[in-house]
UniProtKB/TrEMBL annotation:
PROSITE patterns: HAMP. Residues 214-267 form the HAMP domain. This is HAMP domain-containing protein. Residues 312-334 are annotated as: Disordered. InterPro entries: HAMP_dom, HlyB_4HB_MCP, YvaQ-like_sensor. One of its GO terms (cellular component) is membrane. Keywords: Membrane, Transmembrane, Transmembrane helix. It comes from Rhodopseudomonas faecalis. The chain crosses the membrane at residues 190-213. GO terms for biological process: signal transduction. The keyword Nucleotide-binding does not apply. Residues 321-334 have a biased composition (Polar residues).
């Protein structure tokens, strides 16, 4: 079946197959790149910013706690006022960070933990306000009551706030790790898949190329052999692939016409040689007949000449006899 195809069709099919393989690789590569890009974008726009903001919030909370303790340790009313301004500034920064992070929440579980954290944080701020009030009332002396309230009431709430914040961080760490693993898995699968497709394409392409070259070479060789036979004078060699709708078939048809022309020339030469031989034979026969005729004429001439000589001799004898008879007659008469 493959041998019946034209060289153009074979080469075109091979090129199309390779182009399809390359196109398939391109499509697969683009799909895998899209998946990698999705994972990368997810890491860059969701998990890392969330972890960053959670870290900032945790830092702001730590600063708030330190400022709250400094408020207790500061004895002067003015210094306590300065610490309260610092607490307000830290709280304002934390509120901004909280708003930014809230927009980055991507899962129901993460939102549930955040809302629980927001409630605990609100409770913490309410209790911290009481600590601040007790500390403000103890200006100029050690705020023992405020310290006791901080350690007994506010500290457990602060610990709960930390735990909830850590849970949010763990969720984002897990999501980030999942995206990284997904990207790595996508890369590995794409790499091995592309390598496999490339190897298969190379094997198929090389096999198809060798098959095409061998088929074309065999087709040309099958045409060259009878051509060589014709040059040696053997016009009985058969021309293969005649009538096929391929380049080899076209060459075979042309070679068949050339063979028929050689056969016609050979027959014409043979007929001409036969006619020449017949003319030579006819000439030889005419020459032989001419020579026989000349011999016959020569013999006839010789016979007539001999007869004429004999007749002339006889006439001479007769004349002599006549003269003697006349003389005898004359003698008798006298």
């Amino acid at each position: 079946m493959f041998a019946k195809l034209s060289i153009r069709t074979k080469i075109t099919s091979l090129v199309i197959m390779l182009l399809l393989a390359l196109s398939g690789l391109g499509v697969i590569g683009l799909m895998q790149m899209r998946s990698l890009n999705t994972s990368t974008v997810d890491i860059g726009t969701n998990w890392l910013p969330s972890i960053k903001e959670l870290g900032n919030m945790r830092t702001s909370i730590a600063l708030y706690r330190n400022a709250l303790r400094n408020h207790l340790l500061t004895l002067g009313a003015k210094e306590k006022g300065d610490e309260e301004k610092r607490l307000d500034a830290i709280l304002a920064t934390l509120t901004k960070q909280q708003n930014v992070y809230e927009k980055l929440i991507s899962s129901p579980e993460e939102r549930r933990i955040f809302e629980q954290w927001a409630r605990e944080w609100g409770t913490y701020l309410a209790e911290a306000a009481k600590v601040i009030a007790l500390s403000r009332q103890s200006a100029g002396r050690y705020p023992e009551e405020a310290f006791n309230y901080l350690s007994q009431t506010v500290a457990p709430i602060s610990q709960q706030v930390d735990e909830l914040l850590q849970r949010d961080i763990d969720i984002n760490d897990k999501g980030s790790d999942g995206s990284i693993d997904s990207a790595a898995s996508t890369y590995n699968s794409a790499f091995y898949f592309v390598i496999t497709i490339l190897l298969i394409t190379v094997v198929i392409g090389a096999g198809a190329g060798l098959l095409t070259v061998r088929d074309v070479s065999q087709g040309i060789a099958s045409i060259v052999k009878p051509m060589q036979d014709f040059t040696r004078g053997d016009l009985t060699a058969e021309v293969p692939h005649r009538g096929e709708k391929t380049e080899i078939g076209t060459m075979a048809d042309a070679l068949q016409i050339f063979k028929e022309a050689l056969v016609a020339k050979r027959d014409a030469d043979a007929a001409a040689a036969k006619e020449a031989d017949e003319k030579i034979a006819r000439g030889q026969r005419i020459d032989h007949a001419t020579r026989q005729f000349e011999t016959s004429i020569r013999e006839i001439v010789n016979t007539v000449s001999s007869a004429s000589t004999e007749l002339e001799a006889s006439a001479s004898t007769l004349s002599t006899n006549t003269d003697r008879a006349q003389e005898l007659t004359t003698s008798v008469a006298a």
